[in-house]
Design goal:
It is a single chain. With 311 residues, the protein is of the alpha/beta class. The protein has one domain: Inosine-uridine Nucleoside N-ribohydrolase, Chain A (Alpha-Beta Complex). It is built from 13 helices and twelve strands. It has helices spanning 11-22, 40-53, 74-80, 101-110, 122-127, 131-136, 158-162, 164-173, 182-185, 192-199, 204-223, 233-242, 288-309; strands at residues 2-7, 27-33, 61-63, 114-117, 139-142, 177-180, 189-190, 230-231, 247-251, 254-256, 266-268, 280-286. Strands 3-2-1-4-5-6-12-9 form an eight-stranded mixed beta sheet, sandwiched between helices. It has a two-stranded antiparallel sheet with strand order 7-8. Strands 10-11 form a two-stranded antiparallel sheet. α1 (11-22) links the parallel β1 and β2. 55% of the residues are buried.
Length: 311
């Protein structure tokens, strides 16, 4: 499967990137950079550095648009660290490729790539201005909270809250969207013991990703100690793209509330409730154990293989 990732590269985006590279059925054709956990500039730098660490510097990375009023939220800095990678320094990779991220995304979709978006919907929504993209692109989006509380407000999840109007436009125009939100991602948990398996590979990549993930686990220990680890938000979206059977979905036409009092609220669209075709599916159930076991093992295999290459 050809795939384009649209990342705001914080820690769970980094894990999603590694998972896409580790999965033998995924051909990662490009990464576009959005904002959210960090700025576009920082996210692109993180992505290129991680691709270098993972031996995949040939994959192009394109900087996408950023809202002029954007600023990194305090909670994002707490969860992901000031640099988005838990303060772990990773050697600089190649500079971003030259090109328009929106056009790159549209071309990838025309070439049959699935779009997996794990940050605000700004770039994907701009691509949806193109009728052909909106009609034919297959989109997996990590974001939203339909049946559970949000993580930046009782009614809003972080990615959707950064650009509610963009997500609303995406959900109203795109014809094939799967929403992988907090309803399921908070049931997929990475533990400190599983992270240790990566460190035990002895490779530079394994040790670096273990250090990054440990920071994430520590942040969750303060914010959500009941989970016993950190949520695998963005990696689950990648997994659903390659194996939809991991989740149970509710077909429903959705909208996002853009004004007060609940901006960023994901909810069924009353104006389209009787339309015969639902263009969106929301994941409401997940085979968490099957996903997490596969995720941890595939990254362990990738890190071990990279370690063998350097011997």
């Amino acid at each position: 499967m050809r795939m384009l990732l649209d990342l705001d590269t914080g820690i769970d985006d980094a894990l999603a990137l590694a998972f896409a590279l580790a999965h033998p059925d995924i051909e990662l054709v490009a990464v576009t950079g959005t904002y959210g956990n960090v700025t576009v500039e920082q996210g692109v730098a993180n992505t290129t550095a991680l691709l270098k660490l993972l031996g995949a510097e040939d994959i192009p990375v394109y900087a996408g648009p950023q809202r002029e009023d954007f600023h990194v939220k305090d909670i994002s800095q707490f969860v992901h660290g000031a640099n988005g990678l838990g303060g772990v320094e990773v050697s600089f990779g190649a500079p971003p490729a030259q090109g328009d991220a929106v056009e790159i995304m549209k071309q990838a979709a025309r070439d049959g790539a699935i779009i997996v978006a794990t940050g605000p919907s700004t770039t994907v929504a701009k691509a949806c201005d193109d009728d052909d993209f909106a009609r034919n692109a297959k989109i997996i989006m990590m974001g939203g909270a339909l049946t559970v509380a949000g993580n930046v407000a009782p009614w809003a999840e972080a990615n959707v809250s950064q650009d509610p109007a963009a997500t609303d436009f995406l959900l109203r125009t795109a014809q094939d969207v799967t929403v992988v939100g907090l309803d399921v991602t908070l049931r997929t948990v990475l533990t400190r013991e599983q992270v240790q398996q990566w460190r035990d590979t002895g490779s530079e990549s394994g040790k670096t990703f273990a250090e990054i993930a440990d920071y994430y686990v520590d942040a969750y220990a303060e914010l959500s100690p009941q989970l016993g680890g950190c949520g695998l938000h963005d990696p689950l979206a990648v997994a659903v793209a390659i194996d939809p059977s991991l989740v149970e979905c509710l077909p429903i036409n959705l909208k996002v509330e853009t004004g007060e009092p609940t901006p960023g609220r994901l909810i069924g669209d009353p104006d389209r409730i009787q339309e015969p075709a639902e263009t969106t599916r929301v994941a409401i159930g997940v085979d968490a154990q099957r996903f997490t076991a596969d995720f941890v093992a595939r990254l362990e295999g990738l890190f071990g293989e990279l370690g063998q290459r350097t011997l």
